[in-house]
Amino acid sequence: MPAGVGGGADGPRTLDVAYNTGLTNIDPALACSSPYDYHVVTAAYDNIVELSPRREASGAHEVAPALAERWKVSRDGKTYTFFLRRDATFASGNPVTADDVVYSLRRLLDRDGCQAYVLTMGESGLFRAIEKVDDHTVRVRIAHRDPLFLLRMTSRGNGPIDRRVLERHGGLTRAGDQWLARNTAGAGAYELESYDPDSEVRLRARADYWREPVGAEHVVMRIVTDPTTLQTLTASGEADLAFGVALKDLRALEQQGRQIFADPSNRYTYVGLNNDKAPVDDPRVREALWLAMPHRELLERFGYGYARAFAGMIPPAMPFHPGFDVPERDVERARQLIEEAGASGERISLAVKSGETEQLQMATALQSAWKEIGVDLRIDTLSASAFSDTVSNFKTQAYILRDGSSVNDPAFFLGFFAVCGNPFNWSRYCDREVDRLIDAGRTEPDPARRERIYRRISERIVADNPILPIFASDTIAVASPRLRGYEYYDDQQLVLRKLTVDEAS
């Protein structure tokens, strides 16, 4: 058995994980379009600091050492110094050094992708310097005290890249980006064996990994977009762990002895409306669609006791959720608004990701509901990569998606979900007063004042209906009764290295 690999009673084994939809990109700087991209990133890239399973009195995760064995913060809160472990290596065998950390953080910010937003919360001038002090010390200087900065440094995409490996494959060029989108060069517990993002991804444990033995020598991540097949693999135990299992199947699977891990989540399913595309650029049309939504039916039909309906953008599991009521369905008023907007008979295209069976069924329910008010909803089912391209490049009028925040705070979440011009504001919503309030909430230290700020934001957003929340559902994983080591973190990312399967049971 390799030194860095653990195992059950019969030694190391393969861990089979099934997913209902594919991956899109495993470049740590850019991985975010699929909810499962980060599962590979987390496995292949250790971070310099990470979330601890332990929680503070507030309920937030503690921040724990990882590739940095310790750190210190200056009195003014603007300088962070990280002291790296000396025994950590990349999968290539190269040592993890300050040069790699500096190279990776600068690249991440230069790419200006998902992870750059995580680190900066959209503040372009936040980083003043990222510098090497010596081979095992990195200093980061930011523009001002930022209470969430260290927490954001734990985000899974911040792990250093082996710069020498990346330089051999194109470095800081487009070729390097293309290589890193389908390959790994990290210091995590696993390295990539094969990568087919719409079919199967294989990982193997590193024998020279620096910390505790890894649970499984091999991980097979299977993409199973057919819900019946996914349920069968889960029920039979062929899949040790499964994500995206239809909520309607959970009770039966639990009765069959499967473990159901259900944790309240800030992720929610919603209809995104491109506020720049007719006819949903008209607030009367957006309000009509909201009033005609069969909220209660959707919750009862698809929530199965694992979901909560809400209004606005801040979900129930996030601090400062305003608790606004969801309106009763009002078809007559909705039809009147559609007629006032001159939108009767208009066609709206709605993108749905392949493999998201319940989202497709929700879309079909909406198609029927909105037909009653004179709206023709066309449903376009797209592969994970095509869906990402269509939505992130604002090509469709509407889309259905389950999304959320890696940092459970509205300052972070609304900063990309609602700020004018943010590339991840896929609804293209823009209200300058909301932008001003988001900035105020980000820097306000008093919780009571923050609560008032986020309530005002929510009131404006609910009045505009830039998106239409369906419900916030728990994060669900279904496991074999033999699986051990599953832990839930607020960033909702799987830590593969801790998982084992008890062969003896």
TrEMBL record:
Pfam families in the record: SBP_bac_5
Gene Ontology MF: a single term: peptide transmembrane transporter activity
Compartments, record wording: Cell envelope
InterPro entries for this protein: Peptide/Ni-bd, SBP_5, SBP_5_dom
Alphabetic keyword roster: Signal, Transport
Chain ranges of the Solute-binding protein family domain: 62-422
GO aspect biological process, one term: peptide transport
GO cellular component annotations of the record: ATP-binding cassette (ABC) transporter complex; cell envelope; periplasmic space
Primary location group: other
PANTHER family cross-referenced by the UniProt entry: PERIPLASMIC BINDING COMPONENT OF ABC TRANSPORTER, PERIPLASMIC OLIGOPEPTIDE-BINDING PROTEIN-RELATED
UniProt name for this protein: Peptide/nickel transport system substrate-binding protein
Lineage: Bacteria, Bacillati, Actinomycetota, Thermoleophilia, Solirubrobacterales
